[in-house]
Amino acid sequence: MKMCKCKNLPKFFKSDSSDSYFKKFKRIDWKDDAWVKLIKCPVCGQHWQLDEWDKYQTGLAIKIKEPESWRSYNDKDVRIDFLIQNRGGLSDGICAWQGCNNQALKGLAYCPTCAYEKSGLRE
Length: 123
Description:
The chain is an alpha+beta fold. The chain has two domains: 9-73, no CATH class; 77-117, no CATH class. Helices cover 14% and strands 26% of the residues. It has two helices and seven strands, in the order E-E-E-E-E-H-E-E-H. It has helices spanning 76-86, 112-117, and strands at 12-14, 26-31, 36-40, 47-51, 60-64, 90-94, 103-105. A hairpin with a 6-residue loop joins strand 3 and strand 4. The longest helix has 11 residues, at 76-86.
């Protein structure tokens, strides 16, 4: 691998450990019972959080700015941002979850947070 495309990739995108782009990256660490790993590009040194492949979950690749604090990094906001992006944004409607007044996702009755946290929606 002489060139990499890390700089041109978005901050996060749908991907997992089966993605051929990440095959030559060096594994630095694991967390969450080895379902998530920290890897490093051998060319540019960019660190990524990469989900292990799981047919029941949506895997993401997430750029990591501070690898030294990665073990305490909470990716929930990034996963909710992915949900918003994947669903085409927010609608004009209000979330149907009782007590929630946030904007709902396009095509859904729930806001991104309620859809993620209470309904388990990942895509």
